[in-house]
Design a protein that fits this description.
globular, alpha+beta, BirA Bifunctional Protein, domain 2, about 900 residues, six-stranded antiparallel beta barrel
């Protein structure tokens, strides 16, 4: 059989030929399920279609869905690499019917594909059905001709699927392939069903019921949801029992072998497989907008990346490896998933940065491990809690801890480690809040179902008329909002923009006969329901009330300028920094804009200046900003920039601005539902304020436009003029004059420090004779006040040089009354005196605790600087003891 890419295509083509709509994979970050960390099944994007909340223009669909299982309930991470079929990333092939065909057609379509299109031998196939699903049982006999011996009734929940405690549910029917009696294992439902002989290749779910509290009802329009793992069916069709022996996985593993020079079929086979699998998860997650971090989805990605990087080290890789594998993955899967082609530069940069950091983590972890295990001897057990701390806090893998200790005959307490891990997983499950609509937003589902979408008029006007369709207060629908009340209003149509895409919602006024209300904010719920947050100032707002609607013009104009400037800055950043720049978040407000983007390091002053100059070049050209409605696929194909993880409908708005002087094409082209200026000149000016880091690999640019930028520049100019007047120079000379003053101050500080040092060395300051002998040891004691703490060690070093052999102690009393103490011991006395012990004696007199450093130089301090002389005397006594 052909390769994985051809198998994927043949599945989709088969169902398209049979009347199904080919639907693109949804992102790995779920759009519509707040409980799910990652998309882990094909039906996830259709959840609201099955429940009736969402309508699609088709009743049959086919998909190849990218999935990740590496966190929460569905977690295959620890098994990956050590079995033939576990993955963190996989593709789920599926066909779906939304109230169209049911069991008979689903079974017929499945059977014809695997036996006629793919030529699987019928005598090696068997099916399971739910124990009381006689209809499915009879259909397998009728459609497939399976004998009773190869149709197995299963009484457990394995063959009954439910979306949750309530909602659509129904029996399943699974198709199994028999690999032959030379492989251990029994058929499904038998005591040894977990063997590898009988492998499930396809699961057909018959959604025919709706589960309600206490009862189960028949659905009026039963549906079909199927799932087939592409990796598993590809292995079968390519004549192997191992998913990692398919052509796609072999290509990645071959590249790992080439780069490490370690055979992929030898003792370290598992490491090759871990790297191949985790590379796919890492690149696809980055392409869908997830970046490594210490929480949520980013933390799971970091664990996946670092597990692969650990195995790269086990293969002997001395330099970062993972980023060098991205091209082979893009070559193998980029045609099916063009998002990884667009994200190739970002994924490469992210993997390189993460692996560089991880190598430092490993070095630090080994040092900490050595410290924690210093007192253990062969046969001892290393505390599991400490191993977990190394793993959780420092990212130090357990297997590395075990490897490092095994050579010393020390074993890790796995049970304690596992217990700590379980506690963390329980906390993570309890704390996971996810994304999407919150539970308190359920009221909007009812409003959406009854009233439909809100018609948005705001692209063309800032005033309109509308009628109240729903009123909501404290999460519940109400019939009216009296004067003084605050609540949410849904209208049949509105010019008010609802907060989305980083752009803040509009505010303004609504009024009708005897009623007025301020619109404080506007939000979008469920994608197309515009919700106006209002405070009624006069009269009573009721269902059906006709209203005049007026957006705050000045505020909207400022927002428009900032949104268009954001597009110009986005493209300018790509031109200056490279194609790896991708939007990671934004805020478009009336008074400022904020743009988060992928980039591994701070921008230089020159790069910031270039970005600002490019943006302002297009502002000054005052070219038209064009908006077109296009099919989403056509828009992306034409070069419009789509944001990773963003949900787009079948038709999208494409906003283009500026003309590229090189080729005449638009400078910036993005899919965007926001409001924009008519011409780039309406932006006025773009002023970049700052570049800062917000997360690993993510930078933030802050900027102003129009009136806000003008005010900022005026304030800066005024400050410059004032400073020039104070310094009695021209504005052009301010920078040089300030630099000279700063250097002059530094010189004065150096001179002052030198003077204090000379004063201290000149005669011991307030403590009398500079050098005394204590039991044959020379002791130089110096008490000073007001010195810079940074200078104390230099004074001690000079004192050690002066006395040649002995102990030097310097006590400083600061302006706030606190005391600082530094003690030094010359090299010849290192075995006799310990500076750390001596400084602790003096620090105790100052009212402090401890003190740290080295045996030859240590420091500490305390709140009572008035006892500096007493502290020096205490050290003298210790020398004489």
């Amino acid at each position: 059989m052909s390769g994985v890419n051809e198998i994927r295509s043949s599945f989709i083509d088969y169902f398209v030929k049979n009347g199904h709509e080919a639907v693109a994979s949804s992102p790995l970050v779920p759009r519509n399920d707040p409980t799910l960390m990652f998309t882990n099944a094909g039906m996830v994007q259709f959840k609201n279609v099955f429940t009736g909340v969402e309508k699609r223009p088709y009743s049959r669909a086919v998909t190849a869905q990218k999935c990740v299982r590496a966190g929460g309930k569905h977690n295959d991470l620890d098994n990956v690499g050590y079995t033939a079929r576990h993955h963190t990333f996989f593709e789920m092939l599926g066909n779906f019917s939304f109230g169209d065909y049911f069991k008979d057609r689903a079974i017929e379509l499945a059977w014809n594909l695997i036996t006629k299109e793919w030529d699987l031998p019928k005598d090696r196939l068997l099916a399971t059905v739910y124990y009381d699903d006689d209809v499915a049982y009879d259909l397998w006999k009728k459609v497939a001709g399976l004998p009773d011996s190869r149709i197995i009734r299963i009484p457990t929940s394995d063959n009954f699927w439910a979306m949750g405690d309530t909602g659509p549910c129904g029996p399943c029917s699974e198709i199994f392939f028999d690999h032959g009696d030379h492989i251990p294992g029994g058929p499904p439902g038998s005591p040894d069903e977990d063997g590898d002989r009988f492998i499930e290749i396809w699961n057909l779910v018959f959604m025919q019921y709706e589960q309600l509290p206490g009862e189960r009802l028949n659905l009026p329009r039963p549906s079909i949801d199927t799932g087939m793992g592409l990796e598993r069916i590809s292995a079968l069709l390519q004549g192997t029992h191992d998913n990692y022996e398919t052509d796609l996985m072999r290509a990645i593993i071959a590249e790992v072998q080439e780069l490490t020079n370690v055979p992929s079929n030898g003792p370290q086979k598992a490491s090759h497989r871990v790297i191949a699998d985790h590379l796919r998860s890492s690149v696809f997650l980055v392409a869908d907008g997830v970046l490594p971090s210490n929480e949520g989805r980013g933390y799971v990605l970091r664990r996946i990346m670092r597990r692969a990087m650990r195995h790269a080290q086990l293969l002997g890789a001395r330099e970062p490896l993972m980023h060098r594998l991205v091209p082979v993955l893009v070559r193998e899967m980029g045609r099916a998933y063009p998002e990884i082609v667009r994200a190739e530069a970002l994924a490469t940069e992210t993997l390189l940065l993460e692996e560089t950091r991880f190598r430092r983590t490993l070095e630090r972890g080994l040092s900490l491990l050595e410290e924690e295990s210093a007192g253990l001897v062969s046969g001892a057990r290393f505390p599991g809690e400490v191993a977990f701390k190394l793993y959780d806090t420092y990212g130090f893998p357990l297997d590395l801890t075990e490897d490092a200790l095994r050579g010393r005959g020390i074993e890790v307490e796995r049970e304690a480690f596992d217990a700590a891990m379980e506690r963390q997983k329980a906390e993570a499950r309890a704390n996971w809040s996810g994304s999407g609509e919150a539970a308190t937003d359920t009221v909007w589902f009812g409003v959406r179902e009854r009233e439909g979408a809100t018609e948005f008029l705001g692209y063309d006007t800032e005033t309109a008329e509308g009628a109240v369709r729903a009123l909501v207060q404290e999460g519940k629908e109400v019939s009216e909002l009296p004067a003084g009340a605050r609540g949410f209003v849904v209208l049949n149509q509105t010019p008010f923009y609802g907060e989305s895409g980083g752009q803040v919602g509009d505010s303004g006024l609504v009024s009708g006969e005897g009623v007025k209300a301020c619109v404080l904010n506007t939000q979008k719920k469920l994608g197309d329901v515009f919700v106006h947050d209002v405070e009624v100032t006069e009269g009573t707002l009721k269902i059906g009330t006709p209203l005049a609607l007026e957006v705050d013009h000045a505020r909207r104009s400022a927002v428009r300028a900032n949104h268009s400037a954001t597009h110009l800055l986005h493209e300018a950043l790509r031109r200056v920094l490279g194609d790896h720049v991708a939007q990671k978040g934004s805020l478009v407000a009336p008074d400022r804009l904020r743009f988060d983007f992928s980039h591994p390091k701070p921008l230089t002053a020159d790069e910031l200046a270039q970005v600002e100059d490019i943006a302002n070049t297009y502002v000054l050209r005052n070219e038209p900003v064009e908006t077109r409605l296009m099919a989403v696929d056509d828009a992306v194909a034409s070069g419009a920039r789509a944001l990773f993880g963003e949900k787009y409908g079948d038709e999208v708005r494409v906003v283009s601005m500026g003309t590229d002087s090189g080729n005449g094409a638009p400078f910036s082209v993005e899919l965007c539902g926001g409001t924009h200026v008519k011409r780039t000149g309406d932006i006025g000016i773009v002023t970049v304020l700052a570049d800062s880091g917000v997360a690993a690999g993510v930078r933030r640019l802050e900027a102003l436009t129009a009136t806000a930028a003008r005010r900022h520049l005026n304030a800066a100019s005024t400050a410059l003029q004032t400073t020039a007047g104070t310094l009695k120079v021209s504005t052009a000379e301010v920078e040089a004059r300030v630099a000279a003053l700063v250097e002059e101050r530094r010189k004065l500080e150096r001179d002052l420090a030198e003077a204090r040092k000379k004063l201290a060395m000149g005669g011991g300051g307030e403590s009398g004779p500079a050098v005394i002998e204590v039991n044959g040891t020379r002791y130089l004691r110096i008490a000073i006040s007001g010195a810079d703490p940074k200078d104390l060690k230099a004074i001690v070093d000079e004192g050690k040089t002066k006395i040649g052999s002995g102990v030097v102690a310097v006590a400083n009393t600061a302006a706030d009354g606190k005391g600082a103490l530094v003690v030094g011991v010359t090299a010849d006395l290192a075995g006799k005196f310990d500076a750390q012990k001596l400084v602790r004696i003096g620090v105790e007199v100052l009212g402090g605790k401890g003190g740290g450093g080295r045996p030859d130089m240590a420091q500490g301090g305390g709140p009572d600087g008035a006892k500096a002389d007493a502290a020096l005397a205490a050290i003298e006594s210790a020398l004489g003891a």
